[in-house]
Amino acid sequence: MIKIKDLRFIILSIIILSGFTTFYYINLYGTINGIKSDLLKPNNKLEIVEKEINKKVVFENCKNETDESNFYNYYQFNDKESMINYFLTYQNYYYIEEYKDKQFSNSTKYNLSKYNYPVLTKLYSNFTPTIKEIDNEIDLIKKKYDNGEIVEPKINSITSSTTYRSIRAPKKKTNKKITFENDETYHSLELKKFRSRVWSDFYLNYWKDKYFLLFTLENGLSFRSPRLCLPLDTSKPLLTTPYLFLHIPKCGGTTMYTHFSKHFKVGTLQQWAHPNPAEYKKVQDSKNFIIGHFEMGIHLILNEKEQKTYNYMTMLRDPVERVISNYFYHKHSPGDPQHILARDNVIENWIIISPRGNNEITRVLSGITIKEEPVPSNDTFNMALYHLRSMKFVGITEKYSESLALLKFYTGLENPNVADKLKNSKFRPYGITPAIIEKIKKRNWMDILLYEEALKMFERQINIVGRDNFEKQLTKNYRQ
Ligand SMILES: *[C@@H]1O[C@H](CO)[C@@H](O)[C@H](O)[C@H]1NC(C)=O
Ligand SMILES: *[C@@H]1O[C@H](CO)[C@@H](O)[C@H](O)[C@H]1NC(C)=O
Ligand SMILES: *[C@@H]1O[C@H](CO)[C@@H](O)[C@H](O)[C@H]1NC(C)=O
Ligand SMILES: *[C@@H]1O[C@H](CO)[C@@H](O)[C@H](O)[C@H]1NC(C)=O
């Protein structure tokens, strides 16, 4: 007779093997549902269990050459590269880090004991419409074009949903042919599809990770997370291209583009908004470096080859400084789509009415826009945190030189020209009182938690390449 325990093992094996299919989804949901109350309780068993496992992992020895093959196979890694790739994400290691409980942001400025990490409340994506429904809508539009029913299509050079996110709207006059490919409704539906996909992937992966751990323990299976001796070998860049650099406004992304376009010379791209279908090819042809105000999920449009090698990166800045910089940038940039809102409102009001002043880091990292949620929900925060921890590299604007030094090891970026160093914004802030700062902090509590996480990730990145190597590179970058 098959015991419940065995049955669950079989189901889990199917889940793990079958990947992102509907079948998998139903099984995962069904299985999780049974232990739902347990998983959602604060201080639940799972958390304790995870800590126990990871304690064991911490004390485990580093890689021993004699059982290397065993080692790669533990998680069904095909080769050393794919294992290192896994190893590089903080997502898989955050429980075992020695700096987990340390604060890295300025503790005079941010009293983090006032903040609680929100728990994830939902088990699965309830994004509407579903991808299937969106595809049906797209089909309907296409049919209308095919049948010659559309005479005057709505045409826009960028889709309206990304306008607020783009720093500069493209100035080009649109003089496009009347085709399905240029239809604005079709473009915004494509964007919705990205969000729906990112949203459902998140819930799927989040619970899969949690449940995998719980299951292995309950069934007495030993859990061994792959561990390597640090620092890693950085004789060649740790990360493969293309690099997908999520540009959060006012965090130094434009300077970053200067560095990478000089480094690679070809195959680089700066996108001011998420690409519409007419721009997909341009993205696919940029095989080295793509930076921009695009949405999480842009990897879904890459060619098959790059789908296997892309790596996400981003750069975060102190949230209070970022909000202030963003406000003054808009306030003093006539012609900017966000100018009037900042010009006509004091900063205290602006942080309430402009999404840019209210947890914008969370919004960009989660991939959920104001269209879905005017203020990010607690689940959206968790999505942003999950995405951040899954990134292969995170830079810190306040540590710009240090970030560039680290990028040498991660991407090969060598000795960026000093003349291209991060420029201070020409829009100097004024009239910022301590009371205003308190208001900004209160409004941007999610971004503050993400910033703290990014600082932890930054420390880990230094450990990965080795502190000595890092210091040497930092000095080298300045010796020119
Ligand atoms: C690996 O383990 C074997 C057997 O325990 C030991 O003899 C050997 O010295 C170890 N190698 C390294 C590199 O630690
Ligand atoms: C920490 O924050 C306080 C209050 O904002 C500020 O006065 C101080 O200069 C900051 N310290 C550092 C090292 O930035
Ligand atoms: C930080 O916040 C906690 C909880 O609200 C409080 O008890 C503590 O005194 C605060 N610390 C400082 C330095 O303000
Ligand atoms: C979201 O999380 C915060 C912090 O943990 C908590 O105070 C708040 O009640 C949560 N909001 C909802 C709607 O659950």
Automatic annotation (TrEMBL):
- Mind telling me which PANTHER family this protein's record contains? COUNTIN RECEPTOR CNR3-RELATED, SULFOTRANSFERASE DOMAIN-CONTAINING PROTEIN
Q: Name one Pfam family in it.
A: Sulfotransfer_2
Which named protein is this?
Uncharacterized protein
Q: Which GO terms describe its molecular function?
A: sulfotransferase activity
> Transmembrane region positions?
7-26
Which Gene3D superfamilies is this protein grouped with?
P-loop containing nucleotide triphosphate hydrolases
**InterPro entries linked to this entry:** Golvesin-related_Golgi, P-loop_NTPase, Sulfotransferase
Keyword tags:
Membrane, Transmembrane, Transmembrane helix
According to the record, the signal peptide region is none
Report one GO cellular component: Golgi apparatus
Lineage in the entry? Eukaryota, Amoebozoa, Evosea, Eumycetozoa, Dictyostelia
